[in-house]
Amino acid sequence: MTFGPLVLKLAAFARLSQDDRAALDRLARNQRDIAPRRDLIREGDQPRFVHLIVDGWACRYKTLPDGRRQIVAIFLPGDLCDLNVYVLREMDHSVGAITRLRVADICREDMAGLTEAHPRITQALWWHELVTAAIQREWTLNLGQRSAYERIAHLLCELFMRLQLVDLVRADSCDFPMTQNDIADATGLTPVHVNRTLQELRRAGLIVLQGRTLTIPDLKALQAAALFSANYLHLGRDGRHLDAND
């Protein structure tokens, strides 16, 4: 059986059994497609489902009354958009598609049943939420302290490593559908500044961007330029010593 990106991601945090993996795949049965640049859910909407990104890229964002947008998170295949969102009366942010999306809508009852029957999955989901919070802290540090060069290099490192986790990197290359406007909205820069900074990274030989493909010839060199430490992604399977049902 070929397991989906959610299984690959959660397996980094707990030793999942075959039954656990099959249960996670069944969780993604109610799927629908969202067109590129359309909203999956908008600020003010009443949330009814946990949304799982099965395929494609999305973003969490906030807007000001004059239309200015801040991207506060990027969602990749295997990501859950707000694990407990259904406790809210209304959304305080929007989630929009960057590319065409395949999304699974998971109801509250299915999520509750899964966590009650599969303690290892529950453990992995705790780690998922801890890593989500850690990523948010790192993005705050980016905006407050890193230079434009470091911010963009850091964003590229993070997305590349998160894609590696779900087997979406080929050698030193991955899909990269974000526009310069998207990068600007995620890093607090102008599109012009983003363009200049990407050119600097290219001239330094740290990245190659061709169409929708990002190539990183030397990941360690890009990490050094970004002042990047992957510890906040917790990819070392730190939670396995807490596994249930050992």
TrEMBL record:
SMART domains: cNMP, HTH_CRP
GO MF term list: DNA binding; DNA-binding transcription factor activity
Pfam family, one: cNMP_binding
Record carries keyword Nucleus: no
CDD domains: CAP_ED, HTH_CRP
Cellular component terms (Gene Ontology): cytosol
Entry keywords, A to Z: DNA-binding, Transcription, Transcription regulation
SUPFAM superfamilies hit by this protein: cAMP-binding domain-like (SSF51206), Winged helix' DNA-binding domain (SSF46785)
Transcription regulation found in the keyword field: yes
PROSITE patterns: HTH_CRP_2
Residue ranges of domain HTH crp-type in the record: 146-220
Name assigned to this protein: Helix-turn-helix domain-containing protein
Organism: Sphingomonas changnyeongensis
